[in-house]
């Protein structure tokens, strides 16, 4: 049995969505980030970094969305969740997810979730840096209708996390990001994503 440790609306949505897309048999363990549950001894025993997601498997615990997505794709190859078996295309899949993890997530996270909240010039600079990452996605990386063109992969669910956050923050301008807006609407309409959102007590973010 797989067990996913998650926090509603956080980046673990990507791993949660992946398990739904795979049709996996899994359990959910909610970690309340707002109350600091991620810093309790019980959760630190699962993931010493004190963040979500964490996926408990029969071989041990996996952390980091990019790693969990790869694990799910390779564990459920018949679900066609990634280009498993094609070394070049899998490298592209990992590269895209790596960009989300290492560039987009820190930038938008700093803008939206800094405590205390950013304001004034600091917020303006953080917004400029974050939106520059979205410009790269819009102009160079998302091929459409899915990230890699006509073929849906788990990278699409991962991207959804950050376009949802941007739209919730009033940052996903329709004129500046037509492809990202259309992609978010398309992903949020997928049955597996609808199930994931419902189980986390969330709704699609409307344009």
Please provide a written account of the structure.
The protein is of the alpha+beta class and 207 residues long. The chain is 53% helix and 9% strand. The chain has eight helices and four strands, in the order E-H-E-H-E-E-H-H-H-H-H-H. It has a four-stranded mixed beta sheet with strand order 2-1-3-4, with helices on one face. Helix 1 (13-22) links the parallel strand 1 and strand 2 (26-30). Helix 1 runs parallel beside helix 3. The termini are far apart. 36% of the residues are buried.
| Main sheet makeup | 4 strands, mixed
Instruction: Provide the β-strand percentage band.
Output: 5-15%
Number of strands: 4
Oligomer: single chain
Counting H and I runs of at least 4 residues, what is the number of helices?
Answer: 8
Distance between the first and last residues' Cα: 37 Å
Secondary structure: helix percent? 40-55%
Global shape: globular
Topology, pairings included?
Elements: E1 2-6, H1 13-22, E2 26-30, H2 41-44, E3 54-57, E4 60-63, H3 65-75, H4 87-113, H5 120-141, H6 154-168, H7 178-188, H8 191-199
Parallel strand pairs: 1-2
Antiparallel strand pairs: 1-3, 3-4
Helix pairs in contact: 1-3, 1-6, 1-8, 4-5, 4-6, 6-7
Compact overview of the structure:
This protein has 207 residues and is an alpha+beta fold.
């Amino acid at each position: 049995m797989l067990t996913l440790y998650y926090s509603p609306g956080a980046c673990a949505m990507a791993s949660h969505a992946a398990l739904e897309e795979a049709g996996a048999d899994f359990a959910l363990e909610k970690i309340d980030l707002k109350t600091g549950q991620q810093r309790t001894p019980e959760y630190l025993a699962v993931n010493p970094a004190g963040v979500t997601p964490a996926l408990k498997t029969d071989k041990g615990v996996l952390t980091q969305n990019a790693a969990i997505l790869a694990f799910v794709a390779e564990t459920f190859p018949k679900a066609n969740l990634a280009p498993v078996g094609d070394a070049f295309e899998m490298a592209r899949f990992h590269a895209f997810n790596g960009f989300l993890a290492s560039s987009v997530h820190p930038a938008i996270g700093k803008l939206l979730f800094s405590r205390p909240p950013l304001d004034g010039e600091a917020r303006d600079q953080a917004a400029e840096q974050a939106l520059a990452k979205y410009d790269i996605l819009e102009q160079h990386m998302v091929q459409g209708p899915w990230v890699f063109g006509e073929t849906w992969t788990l990278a699409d669910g991962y991207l959804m996390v950050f376009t949802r956050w941007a739209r919730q923050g009033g940052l996903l301008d329709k004129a500046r990001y037509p492809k990202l807006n259309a992609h978010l609407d398309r992903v949020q309409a997928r049955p597996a994503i609808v199930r994931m959102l419902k189980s986390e007590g969330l709704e699609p973010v409307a344009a």
